[in-house]
Amino acid sequence: MIKEEEVYKIGIINKPHGIHGELSFTFDDDIFDRVDADYIVCLMDGILVPFFIESYRFRSDSSALIKLEGVDNEQQARRFTNTEVFFPKKHAEGTEDEDLTWAYFTGFIIKDVKEGKIGKVTDVDDSTINTLFVVDRDGKELLIPAQEDFIVNLDREARIITMDLPSGLIED
Length: 172
What we know:
- The chain is 8% helix and 48% strand.
- The protein is elongated, with a radius of gyration of 18 Å.
- β9 and β10 (140-145) form a beta hairpin.
- With 172 residues, it is mostly beta strands.
- The longest helix has 5 residues, at 74-78.
- It has two domains: 4-98, RimM (Elongation Factor Tu (Ef-tu), domain 3, Beta Barrel), CATH 2.40.30; 102-163, PRC-barrel domain (SH3 type barrels, Roll), CATH 2.30.30.
């Protein structure tokens, strides 16, 4: 069984394309440029399910047409409409640090050099020019700037980001 902390969101399947099971896929991570991907993980009825990729072709820098094994007609493809798509972190970890997207860090624990453990990254808000980690701190949502300048250490194996945050940023 695939666990939520083993994957990170890379996009969404929009709708079927044509009658042969192809799917229109919008992504916000360039993982296909960096890694040879054999499969993707889709959130189907609340369960993370892997699907092998038969083929894909880019339409733009943020969309592609993707064909999954076992999805051979429009009716089968319709099941995937508006389905969130994830990618296994273990396959993305072979990439260099500069190739990672901020979404990769969902599920990591953030520690501050002065404050200690702050909380777990539950999401990444990149809707503005300043990308923010959305952190769950004892049930409260905390927004922390996702700035490389603040990151002191990154432990991928332990899934911990150690940061040196400006004083006053974390107040209860």
